């Protein structure tokens, strides 16, 4: 296996692994809460409601804010501005600040913390590996990755605290 292949997998596809692991952990935790004999309609309604509260809203908001920032502050990617940086995986020459991959993965990782602290740490580690791979691939500067991680993490924490403080204690799975 060559290094370019590994960098491509880690930089481009680890985001899917983080998403799949997070959703699997959520579903496993949610299904263990229900008594045998609970109506499937009730279970599905609660799963959809919790999934929206835990993943769709905070990750969607973080992604939206990230898109707005990158449209207002366009910083060219390293492979565009630096002649000594070789792009290891195909990527568009659009702006890269903040890293949308990191925003997405860190917001998911922080939200998973609400129901599974150990799993959240694994997801954070995978996110950091992906961020390093994206820097190695010439797609991002380290500051793009750091800004994305901070943005995703801070927005998810703010969302979770706001929802929990507002009395919506259904946000965290019990």
Query: Helix-strand pattern, N to C?
Result: HHHHHH
Average pLDDT for all residues: 84
- Quickly count the domains: 1
Overall helicity: over 70%
Radius of gyration: 18 Å
- Going by helix content, strand content and strand pairing, the class is mainly alpha
User: What's the assembly state of these chains?
Assistant: single chain
Shape type: elongated
Indicate the low-confidence ranges by residue numbers.
none
Query: What is the β-strand count?
Result: 0
Largest sheet: none
Strand content: under 5%
Could you tell me how far the N terminus lies from the C terminus, measured between alpha carbons in angstroms? 43 Å
Q: How many alpha or pi helices? A: 6
Describe this structure in words.
With 174 residues, this protein is mainly alpha-helical. The protein has one domain (3-165). The chain has six helices and no strands. α2 runs antiparallel to α4 (100-112) and α5 (117-136) packs antiparallel against α6 (142-165). The chain is elongated, with a radius of gyration of 18 Å.
